[in-house]
Structure of Cysteine desulfhydrase:
Amino acid sequence: MPPLSVLQPIAHPIFSQHKITVQVKRDDLIHRFISGNKWRKLKYNLLHAKAIGAKGVITFGGCFSNHIHACSFACHQQNLPVIGIIRGEQDNQNNYTLAWAKHWAMKLTFVDRKTYRMRNDEHYLQQLQRQYPDYFIIPEGGSNALALTGVAEVIEELSQQCEFDTLITPVGSGGTLAGLILGDKSQHNLLGIAVLKQQGYLESEVSDLLPLTSKNENKWRIAHEFHCGGYAKFSPQDAEKIRNFSQVVGIDFEPVYSGKMILALLKLIESGYFPAHHRIVLLHTGGLQGLGGMFERGLLNQAEWPSPPATPVP
Ligand SMILES: *Cc1c(COP(=O)(O)O)cnc(C)c1O
């Protein structure tokens, strides 16, 4: 099978200064609405849901979640009814992300934070399953064993596309990094950039997702110095750096996931982390729909950033 996404070399003065090469695996281009790594993670989940004859899908996410956005479109496309259990109040139900989720027929159920915290609790999930016996439950972010199989295909594709030393990905729930670890049989360095403040926790999340035979902790690590203060937090200077980088290389990045990977890349290169002639691949996980909610909240100036995939809000 031909690769699902292209691999694009990028040029930046700092790369040549440090004699390294950087290419971007453009998973952001896989689909207009289904964000890159969410496409990979949903693929085998939805095939499985269909194979077992599920009448629908239930999943979890925050009000601005890329996974909720992606899952609603993907289920719509697959004719699978889908329920989104959303953290927080209904106040946000008409924001960019949720307006589109509703447009694509996701049924939204808002739960308070305390209930939401039980999303991985076995007892809670059993109860939910009894309530919706024929629905297939996909965890927050889509991260489960089936997701890993989909993400592992990134590595298969890369093996046809190039040789490289280090593959870098942003880390949220850890499913993407775990899938890359599972897929990589060639001992590449796999570097995850934590986008939230959870040192230690993220490592165990990744490790717990992996089968025992694939844990191989020698080849992967998560860097925790680049979350800019926490999930979806960033300073105007951080945002400016990301925007500048996008302009220089001609690829859009957003400041919640892929942009933090860019900030990390720049700092690591400056600090001499990568030896000369190192070959880096960045996994562009997508996520540009998230900009919609940032504009609405006035966190970014819409005039300075790319448009999210579909405007205006339906
Ligand atoms: C969800 C998401 C991630 C994080 O992936 P995990 O598998 O949860 O670690 C990274 N980038 C984007 C754009 C995302 O939407």
